Amino acid sequence: MATKTQSTPFIKSFASSDKKIRDKALDSLRAFLSGRSRIEEIELLKLWKGLFYCMWMSDKALIQQRLAVDLASLVDILHSDVVLPFLDAFWKTMAREWNGIEVLRMNKFLFLVRQYLAASFRFLSKQNWSNTSAIEAYLHILSDTPLNPNEAKIPNGMRYHVLDVYVDELDKVDAYREGKMPLELLLRPVRTIEKESRTKAVRKRAKEALDDERLVNWNGDDMEGVSKTGKEKGGEAVENNVEEDEWGGIEN
Question: Compositional bias of type Acidic residues: which residue ranges (predicted)?
Fold first, then answer.
């Protein structure tokens, strides 16, 4: 019997250049996902295989950007019990496919990863970061896949990018500095990979993230263990913005 993921042919419509077709596909996927309080891992992995392919096939800057933003927005409509498995399937899919992404297609996937890191932090920030068990579970997902210190199957390129944008996305989700965000806890995967990775370049990139000057006085008090001489990073080439003049995109 076909799985429900196999019966979602609208997924391929995400790569369409026609906005009406893309919007209809997004509405269909939202309806499909929002009505589920439990989805098996195999279904989620199949779903993400299809969504990855749609991202792969998308062309033109605004279509790529809009698709990445729309896919990340799915996190906001999921049943709370589905969010973490959905995010886990996303990271596993990206890790599996990363080394096969062509150079000319890489920027749109870098943007997608940034959007998903942002969406995951927004989810954790609900109710003033009070769901400690969800935070711990998600940090385990990060440590198990994109920020795994030594698993050879995890591409270093993905590690580098997540480390490069990690503090940026924490900064955005905690823009008002209300003092509720458990910053030290959220930095734990970065500290772990900085200490335990056997790859010098990965350790260096993690240290650069931890030396970010924004961490020195996050809530008005110096953070213990963070360098006070943190240097300003040059920034990621792909910014979290859907304006065409910010990113020219990649034409397939």
Answer: 241-252
